Prior knowledge:
The complex is a heteropentamer, with two copies of chain A, one copy of chain C and two copies of chain D. By secondary structure, chain A is mostly helical. Chain A has helices spanning 6-39, 45-57, 60-71, 76-83, 92-117, 120-128, 133-144, 146-162, 165-171, 181-189, 195-228. Chain A has one domain (6-228): Orthogonal Bundle (MetI-like fold). Helices cover 79% and strands 0% of the residues of chain A. In chain A, helix 2 (45-57) crosses helix 5, helix 5 runs antiparallel to helix 9 (165-171) and helix 10 (181-189) runs antiparallel to helix 11. The longest helix of chain A has 34 residues, at 6-39. In chain C, helix 1 links the parallel strand 1 (2-7) and strand 2 (29-34). Chain C is an alpha/beta fold. Chain C starts with a strand and ends in an 8-residue tail after the last strand. The relative contact order of chain C is 0.22. Chain C has helices at 11-19, 36-44, 57-65, 102-106, 121-132, 136-139, 149-157, 168-173, 206-212, 216-224; strands at residues 2-7, 29-34, 51-53, 75-79, 82-87, 112-115, 143-146, 163-167, 177-182, 192-197, 228-229. The longest helix of chain C is centred in the middle third of the chain and has 12 residues, at 121-132. In chain C, the strands form two sheets. In chain C, strands 2-1-3-10-4-11 form a six-stranded mixed beta sheet. Chain D is of the alpha+beta class. Chain D has two domains: 3-220, P-loop containing nucleotide triphosphate hydrolases (Rossmann fold), CATH 3.40.50.300; 235-363, CATH 2.40.50.100. Chain D is 23% helix and 36% strand. Chain D contains nine helices and 21 strands. In chain D, helix 2 (93-104) runs parallel beside helix 4 and helix 3 packs antiparallel against helix 4 (134-147). The chains are: A mainly alpha, C alpha/beta, D alpha+beta. Chains in contact: A-B, A-C, A-E, B-C, B-D, D-E. At the D-E interface, helix 4, helix 5, strand 16, strand 19 and helix 9 of D face helix 4, helix 5, strand 16, strand 19 and helix 9 of E. One adenosine-5'-triphosphate sits between chains D (11, 13-14, 31, 33-39, 83) and E (131-136, 161).
Amino acid sequence: MLSLTPEETTAILLSLKVASVATLGSLPFGVLIAWLLARKTFPGKALLDALVHLPLIIPPVVTGYLLLLLFGKRGPLGSWLAEIGIVFAFRWTGAALACAVMGFPLLVRAIRLSMEAVDPRLEAAGRTLGAHPALVFLTVTLPLSLPGILAGVVLSFARAFGEFGATVTFVSNIPGETQTLPTAIYTFTQVPGGDAQALRLTLISIAIAAVAILLSELLARRSARRVLG
Amino acid sequence: MLSLTPEETTAILLSLKVASVATLGSLPFGVLIAWLLARKTFPGKALLDALVHLPLIIPPVVTGYLLLLLFGKRGPLGSWLAEIGIVFAFRWTGAALACAVMGFPLLVRAIRLSMEAVDPRLEAAGRTLGAHPALVFLTVTLPLSLPGILAGVVLSFARAFGEFGATVTFVSNIPGETQTLPTAIYTFTQVPGGDAQALRLTLISIAIAAVAILLSELLARRSARRVLG
Amino acid sequence: DLLVFAAASLKTALDEIKTGQSIVPPAQVKISYAASSALAKQIEAGAPADLFLSADLDWMDYVERKKLVKPGTRGTLLGNRIVLIAPAGSKASVKIAPGFDLAGLLGKDGRLAMADVNAVPAGKYGKAALQALQVWPSVQPRLAQGENVRATLLLVARGEAPAGIVYASDAAVEKNVRALDAFPANTHPPILYPAAQLSDSRHPQAAAWLAGLRSAAAKAVFAKNGFTVIAAHAATN
Amino acid sequence: MSLEIDIAHDYGGFALQAQFACAPGLTALFGRSGAGKTTLVNAIAGLLTPQRARISINGRVLADTGNGINVPPHQRRIGYVFQDARLFPHLTVRNNLLYGRFFARRDDDIDFGHIVDLLGIAQLLQRRPATLSGGEKQRVAIGRALLSRPELLLMDEPLASLDGARKDEILPYLERLRDELRLPIVYVSHAIPEVTRLADTVVLLSDGRVQAVGSVEDLTARLDLFPLTGRYEAGAVLNATLVRHDEAWGLSVLQTRAGDVMVPRLERALGTALRIRIRARDVTLALTPPTGTSALNILPGTVAELQPSSEGAPQVEVRLDCHGDTVLARVTRLSADRLDLQPGKPVYAMIKTVALDGGSLGGRGR
Amino acid sequence: MSLEIDIAHDYGGFALQAQFACAPGLTALFGRSGAGKTTLVNAIAGLLTPQRARISINGRVLADTGNGINVPPHQRRIGYVFQDARLFPHLTVRNNLLYGRFFARRDDDIDFGHIVDLLGIAQLLQRRPATLSGGEKQRVAIGRALLSRPELLLMDEPLASLDGARKDEILPYLERLRDELRLPIVYVSHAIPEVTRLADTVVLLSDGRVQAVGSVEDLTARLDLFPLTGRYEAGAVLNATLVRHDEAWGLSVLQTRAGDVMVPRLERALGTALRIRIRARDVTLALTPPTGTSALNILPGTVAELQPSSEGAPQVEVRLDCHGDTVLARVTRLSADRLDLQPGKPVYAMIKTVALDGGSLGGRGR
Ligand SMILES: Nc1ncnc2c1ncn2[C@@H]1O[C@H](COP(=O)(O)OP(=O)(O)OP(=O)(O)O)[C@@H](O)[C@H]1O
Ligand SMILES: Nc1ncnc2c1ncn2[C@@H]1O[C@H](COP(=O)(O)OP(=O)(O)OP(=O)(O)O)[C@@H](O)[C@H]1O
Ligand SMILES: [Mg+2]
Ligand SMILES: [Mg+2]
């Protein structure tokens, strides 16, 4: 039952790649936006806040559709990016983009939550010690937000690992290029009698994601122990 | 463009009901599980942790299908619950269940993150003042986890408001009963020329969810101001 | 209420028929549109539906095998054709024939948009047709398979893919695509939309409503939406 | 109350090993930073479960690792003023104060308004802890612990960041709690004046070990403990009885075995038993009864012992026997030489009345 | 340094309004809990932006709301020991200590090892703050601020939870910083001995207003400020020069205008200018030069002023003029009456040498 077809192996590896790239690639942006939302006030903040949540609210298919409109070859951003050599359409990079977008609200929220819990008095202490606010952010705020960053990464990774609606709409289902594990699973659910196959792949998917989650927990616990002694 | 058909009005109201019930209904369980994960060590904790994340990892269609198998009229849980008068299959309650399940990982993670940030020394102080640990939880831990609870509720609500794959698979797309806003949008995306309609409903959906998110932000800011002075 | 489970692609037509005058007996009708696969599994799980309108034969067979179809009520409601499409602005023109230069039409790095060739009916039919026409090997590595026909249509309409294969009914409504040619009916299994009353259906008007879908007025609506209306004699399929 | 403690706990790097019993009243825990005071107090409160522990109050066993007894903190009925205030940030000052009272569910014999006034926090009741000053937080924390109606009060440097005037208001109240409500108190402090004023028993901790346990009288008079208690604060404690008020001059007269001692007017009933602490540094010695000086108290006695404060120090500590009471005097070696102080030599101890003020006079527990 | 401050800030409910300039050296901020000390220090550090502010150090303007100048905290080069330690919980003690030094990017003329030893935290370097005791945290916080090589040091009750012995180690070091590195220090404290020992300027805050600014000498001798400075601690400060060591008896002789004063041996060079604080409570008055007593210091003078400590109090404060220097004595009304003290009357102030110890003697800044 656990012997994999070459196509499935490809899909699994691709899923891992897509989910990792999506998560790590969106992390800097997630941190930035989380920081803006947690610590700054500026006009349009509420709008930004709502915007970040959009991928949760909009059905994935619609998100995929919007991504296609924006980042497709003919899309305003897509055509511009293509000129500088960045192509998303029908590429695994597009799958990563879709997954990143879908996981973004989760990433941002978790990081923001942790950042808001960082005691601003510690940041003030850092500043009196001569550290520029940006360095205080790097040396105090960010390390103390680690639980949220880890949680955000886990959520975003898990989401990416399960994402399918936006991905398949945006970059289709091209084996070896954009066919991730969930796309493969979906295919099986659409054929009569494919349940067993779908379940098999689902279990594999769960097993992989579970390992990732457990690793992150270990990491989180270790960093917590360091802070709490 | 914004004049709604009666069916759409129904779908919007139903979506609101489903998302609210899903979020509020899952909240106590979310709090409980978050607390277990944040504060307790017990055998099988890692398993529970992974389990909570499952709805993120599993494609929604598969989740919906599993719900159908479990909670359908013929399912093991569904038939048992039917005896005590609780029916999920093809009812709005089922849509709420599906949404609750899909939003659960987000709810739990956010609450847990905030709970882990609550200073255990404050809880200790509560205990020395004669409060039973359960009361300390209610009077100290829980209020101090409010940011996470609000964030979790927002994420879960937004997710519920956008959930479609599991819902349509579990309880179908029956107007007035299980046709929520996202499933209505889905239907439009499935017919040629339905794009404009789909987009229109998406915008409505975004508008409603945005209002909900902004309200929650106001609430969060107010409660933060109370704590920070 | 009369509850109809219908494939999502039938929405436009069915909504018009439902609200149209005297096409079907006036009744409180609710139609749940979803993927045929989902609907079939829900019926299997005991959904309280009266009628099932599937977008392909396989899922109706699946339901029938489970003895959930009221004997004697199954019939073919509609037919469809698959066509080769290109973006509306495309200058391409091809005639579909064995060995036709489909790969050339895609250009250097263009992709052929299709619905999932293993799972979604339109994809399965398209694959069969391309195999029959012996062009399958030349385009197989260059497919972009969508979740469903709508995704395929979208890719071509947006110009992301220079060509695609969709139902004629879809191509007929989407202004941003142009049908280049239809695949000959003999290159793929017949594309049929079966309909049946379900065995648990108790609604008194279910049968009459199903019959109404086969009325001339209904057929006119279906035809308008690009479906092929199946002759009465084939209805026993 | 009697508090019996036998605790061993090892953090890895620091080991606490403490065994002692205290008399009723106030027990002062005294020791240098890092000596293990907070650790010990946490163990009594039940917030730390030591590797080995036997703790009992008045025979009520709170913890006994041998028998697996470990009463949870909320059932110990112990009020704890933490070294860090630990106010609940989400509650107003009022609700912080009422928190413990609510859960204590006992009769209200401690008056909310009174405590609020005593601590000077009436105008803060609607505020939240985040905006309070350091001392304000500390005062609220004291109020919160008092209002929980504990049966034992643990105070970990409760007055550390309060000004002298505020201390002078709070200390008498603690004395009253100790005496009138017979509330046992364990009090951690670095400030000897507080300790000696309040304490019935002093526990000296050093590096996790109990260095000495005893009455204030004993410990502060023990010359060998000066390195721990501090030379500056050395002194002797006399038991006294209030025998007379001198309304005209605002003075009270205390009777001790050493002789009558005049102190600033005390608001106590005649006959009250008191403790009076005479710091060695405040005692001037004279060979003849001095006249024409402002020092009102002149106690005759004989030199019992001379001991240099430390190797080569310029002072010596002189222990006097004044009719059975011990009085300590600290004088320079030069003076000792000039006065030719020797054991057995009769001398007069001069003590200014104003040196015997708030910090030196404590009501005597029981 | 000269620190010039003009600040107005209103929290709503509490308003701070402070304008003063201080001389070089150490400025003590003194005031009751809630007086606004931390608020003022925060404004100097730039952590609070007051509604109106003009702050300058040595002419360098740190904030001027009029001109829109507001130097951000990290550019103010101000070291701040917070009232709460505020250590970084995710860093080891070592990295907490090195944090400021890293960002200060200056020459290492403050030695890491030396400070660590001075503060007694060498064995804590690998630990994280969560496991430190209260006093240990405070010491690490002091070290962290010192190692950031500030140009101004703000210390908000830095020694509040330290034991006396530790204080006695840290205070001389602060004195050295002040004198040798000419590091200006603003020091918040409730402990008068610390303040008088260290301070060149004292700023008395009360309810958000500056009540008095001046040299230690002036302020501690001003009878009207006793309600704020505290009666117990009243005393006068004399400027003195170290003129002789008496090696045999371990004493040093200081010359003041009032006369020679013997104190326990000082490890200072002859000729050093010093300050000596004589607490009013330690001064005994006599009408004739006393003989045969252990008090080594006898300063002749005349009564300049008598003032009851407060309405109906049993003591009076007596200001003596001793050849131009002011000496304060506190005696009971009874004694004042018996000795018939009147302005102009010649008297002798007796002061024990042992009363003039660490807490009373401070090196004089500049
Ligand atoms: N954010 C704030 N909002 C309202 N009032 C405040 C705020 N911060 C401080 N206060 C008040 O301002 C006053 C001065 O506070 P500050 O912290 O400066 O006092 P402090 O002199 O340092 O006292 P302590 O010795 O107790 O630390 C206090 O009464 C305090 O309650
Ligand atoms: N969790 C811990 N792990 C390791 N060492 C610890 C831990 N908690 C405390 N210690 C150490 O135990 C010793 C005693 O700590 P404790 O807090 O009891 O001291 P303390 O007497 O209260 O000191 P202070 O007067 O400074 O508050 C300290 O050296 C401290 O570093
Ligand atoms: Mg401690
Ligand atoms: Mg303060």
